[in-house]
């Protein structure tokens, strides 16, 4: 760990600090929030940032800090679930395609090519049109859009190692295909998958906030940074903080995840320079 | 070269067919009967059966597909449930504004990225490099819709330099139209330049280490000539692929930017039809954007040999 930190430098430290701050905020939010994030207080609408409301209040008098804290939890959970589904499904399919080759490979590649022919966010939009907007359909829609890139990465890694001696040895020792894949192929596939998972997490956070901003993501009154930004637009001229706070949250989180991803890639794949 | 072009063209056809099948199936996944959606819940069985027959929904799925696909090939994408307008005409009308913003912004972003990435790689590990990498990293983390809102707040509201909400078509007043497009173009240029700059810098670093660059320097060429004539063409090829992917994605609609700046573009059309459950329009937009994406990538692949002639030999 220490070697890694020295090697990765200040970018990694900033990345870890930002992601750490995000996780800490979520953890605190689980036990304590300054106000109830969805409680309406019509006596104090659009109050500017002050001591008792650090980030001010919105048009319904709801505390922006509390809403941002709950929004962080919702966005991170959706992004985590999206990445988990995409990585699990994509790794399984990629292993099968790369190891079995033949028809399995051809059919799976046709499928990934088709999905990759749609711009990701539009495919997600279309699937949400079909499924209706809810947290579950955001996860399903985004993971459908991301799975093909996981399949691609895993498949190409498997192709590069499947003819190596240790795989041949496992086969000659009489291991079944499943045993060979799980014990010998999978561990070699994990480093690029971890790097990809970090980027996917960032993309999922960004896409969820974009969908929520467009009004087809997380349905109100549940707050996410995206729908908070969307609701802030009519009050931009009199309550600028409503637009500034959620945006800074998204940008800070993405910066942290990207820096962490760069550091992970340098560490796991030292041949490539970022 | 001709063989390469033919091969790429032929490889595109099955993808386009699969894309059409996928679009058709996604829309058929919608829960409930489209005829009921069209007529409303209270419609009687006879008129529902009538609409089903009109839409061809009583025929087998493959027949429905080929009928729809045949019409789509002739440019007929059906009519909007909400407005009754032909979907194809509506898509083309909205596509114009999206294409204008995207093409200008991606051109600027590519120019900025090519210059900044090359210089950063050339002056690697200096203050210039650090500034370029730092700026690109920050830009990558800023969501386009938030950058748009902040610029609108600053230049539209506080300073009042640029129009705030709405849009004037080019046909009415070209000068006004340009003013409305300044902020969307600036926002998109900044957002897209981040990843392109990183790509250009990384490939320039690789190319600068190659023997032929050392050779070019050794024969006494100026640094400027080495960079422009020898490093740039090779380093730019991977960036060009990324430009193609970016163009393909963005031409499908920059929904969030169009929402921030209230522009009637393709992305906004898609979002509005999703919200209104206007399925013929959603289906049409999806098919159109996927075809644009595939065609743009095909064009980029066809341009690739200009920068890297080795690809035609494969």
What would you say this structure looks like, in words?
The complex is a heterodimer of chains A (274) and B (314). By secondary structure, chain A is an all-alpha fold. Chain A has helices at residues 2-8, 10-31, 64-100, 102-116, 120-131, 135-161, 165-172, 177-214, 225-232, 241-268. Chain A has a single domain (62-268), classed as MetI-like fold (Orthogonal Bundle). The model of chain B has no long low-confidence stretch (mean pLDDT 85). With 314 residues, chain B is an all-alpha fold.
Mean pLDDT of chain A: 86
Choose one word for the global shape of chain B: globular
Secondary structure class of chain A reads mainly alpha
Distance between the termini of chain B: 10 Å
* Percent of residues in helices of chain A: over 70%
User: Which residue ranges of chain A are poorly predicted, with pLDDT under 50 across at least 5 consecutive positions?
Assistant: none
Order of helices and strands of chain A: HHHHHHHHHH
What is the CATH T-level topology of chain A? MetI-like fold
Cα gyration radius of chain B (Å): 24 Å
Structural class of chain B: mainly alpha
Please give the CATH class of chain A. Mainly Alpha
How does CATH name the architecture of chain A?
Answer: Orthogonal Bundle
Number of strands of chain A: 0
Strand portion of chain A, in percent? under 5%
């Amino acid at each position: 760990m220490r070697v890694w930190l020295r090697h990765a430098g200040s970018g990694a430290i900033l990345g870890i600090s930002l992601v750490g701050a995000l996780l800490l905020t979520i953890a605190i939010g689980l036990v304590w929030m300054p106000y109830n994030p969805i409680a309406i207080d019509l006596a104090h609408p659009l109050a500017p940032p002050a001591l008792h409301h650090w980030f001010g209040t919105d048009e319904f008098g709801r505390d922006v800090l509390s809403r941002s804290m709950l929004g962080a939890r919702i966005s991170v959970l959706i992004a985590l679930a999206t990445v988990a589904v995409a990585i699990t499904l994509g790794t399984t399919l990629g292993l099968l395609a790369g190891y079995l080759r033949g028809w399995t490979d051809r059919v799976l590649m046709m499928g990934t090519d088709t999905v990759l022919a749609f711009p990701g966010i539009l495919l997600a939009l279309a699937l949400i049109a079909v499924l209706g907007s809810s947290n579950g359909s955001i996860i399903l829609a985004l993971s459908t859009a991301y799975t093909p890139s996981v399949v691609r990465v895993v498949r190409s890694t498997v192709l590069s190692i499947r003819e190596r001696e240790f795989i041949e040895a496992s086969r000659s020792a009489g291991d079944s295909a499943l045993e060979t894949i799980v014990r010998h192929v999978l561990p070699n596939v994990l480093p690029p998958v971890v790097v990809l998972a970090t980027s996917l997490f960032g993309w999922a956070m960004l896409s969820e906030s974009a969908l929520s901003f467009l009004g087809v993501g997380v349905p109100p009154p549940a707050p996410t940074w995206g729908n908070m930004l969307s609701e802030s637009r009519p009050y931009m001229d009199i309550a600028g903080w409503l637009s500034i706070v959620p945006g800074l949250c998204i940008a800070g989180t993405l910066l942290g995840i990207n820096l962490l991803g760069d550091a992970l890639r340098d560490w796991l794949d030292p041949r490539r320079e970022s | 070269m001709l063989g390469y072009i033919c091969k790429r063209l032929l490889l595109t056809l099955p993808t386009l067919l699969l894309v059409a099948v996928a679009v058709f199936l996604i829309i058929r996944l919608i829960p409930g009967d489209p005829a009921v959606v069209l007529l409303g819940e209270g419609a009687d069985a006879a008129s529902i059966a009538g609409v089903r027959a009109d839409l061809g929904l009583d025929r087998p799925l493959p027949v429905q597909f080929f009928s729809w696909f045949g019409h789509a090939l002739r440019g007929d994408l059906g009519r909007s449930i909400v407005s009754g307008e032909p979907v194809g005409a509506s898509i083309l009308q909205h596509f114009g504004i999206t294409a204008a913003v995207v093409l200008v912004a991606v051109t600027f972003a590519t120019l900025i990225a090519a210059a900044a990435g090359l210089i950063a790689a050339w002056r690697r590990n200096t203050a210039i490099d650090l500034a370029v990498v730092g700026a690109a990293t920050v830009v990558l983390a800023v969501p386009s819709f938030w950058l748009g809102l902040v610029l609108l707040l600053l230049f539209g509201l506080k300073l009042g330099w640029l129009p705030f909400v709405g849009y004037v078509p080019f046909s009415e007043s070209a000068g006004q139209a340009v003013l409305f497009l300044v902020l969307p173009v600036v926002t998109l240029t900044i957002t897209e330049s981040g990843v392109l700059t990183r790509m250009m810098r990384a490939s320039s670093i690789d190319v600068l280490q190659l023997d032929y660059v050392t050779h070019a320097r050794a024969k006494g060429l100026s640094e400027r000539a080495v960079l422009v004539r020898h490093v740039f063409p090779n380093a730019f090829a991977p960036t060009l692929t990324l430009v193609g992917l970016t163009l393909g994605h963005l031409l499908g609609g920059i929904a969030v930017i169009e929402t921030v700046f209230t522009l009637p573009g393709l992305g906004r059309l898609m979002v509005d039809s999703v919200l209104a459950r206007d399925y013929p329009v959603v289906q049409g937009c999806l098919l159109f954007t996927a075809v644009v994406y595939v065609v743009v990538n095909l064009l980029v692949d066809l341009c690739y040999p200009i920068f890297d002639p080795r690809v035609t030999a494969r």
